[in-house]
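Input record (Table S2, row 253):
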Amino acid sequence: MGKIISIANQKGGVGKTTTSVNLGACLAYLGKKVLLIDIDPQGNATSGAGIDKGDVHHCIYDILVDDMDIKKVIKKTAVDNLYAVPATIQLAGAEIELVPTISREVRLKRAVDSVKDEYDYVIIDCPPSLGLLTINSLTASDSVLIPVQCEYYALEGLSQLLNTVRLVQKHLNQDLMIEGVLLTMLDARTNLGIQVIQEVKKYFQNKVYQTIIPRNIRLSEAPSHGQPIIQYDPKSRGAEVYLDLAKEVADNG
Ligand code: ADP
Ligand code: MG
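Output record (magnesium ion complex):
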């Protein structure tokens, strides 16, 4: 049965989408069957996984708002074993349109539950907010992976995220766990990075992954080619570290 992991942090630009796409592609490279679900209206995971939004006729919006069968929305990607549920800008309206609907928090869960047996992992790329889309993702998930950027105020805002996790545990999904905390965009040339690592490890202890993602130019170039790093430049440092992360995640079960 598939494990469902939300990639969440309400801060923008911390590496959620980069991690969703590349963790997904690296797990697929390791032979796991992976479904990557894009639930951010910006649709960056969709294009990052190589799906041309011009070719998308149905997206996550249709699943959440119109109860469309998820199987009609899943697309194969150019990476073996990697499938995706795309998002388009249409999703921007969903947060408001869902408010008056019945069972608005469990819509994604119902859809994902209907296919999770067909995959080893379902990875959900969350938007930079703690609204209904992220709540749907946390409600559908077994666990949440939190990317934290190695910068000043790295821990800022995390108490709100953890509070949301607790609320979801209490009211919607009592089995939700913290999968792990991933340090991203480390600049090895500065002392700041080392301080942030210590601070985050003090707070999250053994929940912090051994693998730390450095700043790597190839990782930032890959999305504009519509390729995960393992495809775009398999020999790069970026590919190496995301493969290390995928192994850690797979070892976790
Ligand atoms: P989020 O989804 O949290 O908003 P992204 O994954 O989109 O964050 O990352 C924000 C920006 O930083 C993107 O332009 C991305 O290409 C870039 N980026 C992410 N991780 C790295 C990295 N390790 N090294 C260099 N650039 C990165
Ligand atoms: Mg993103």
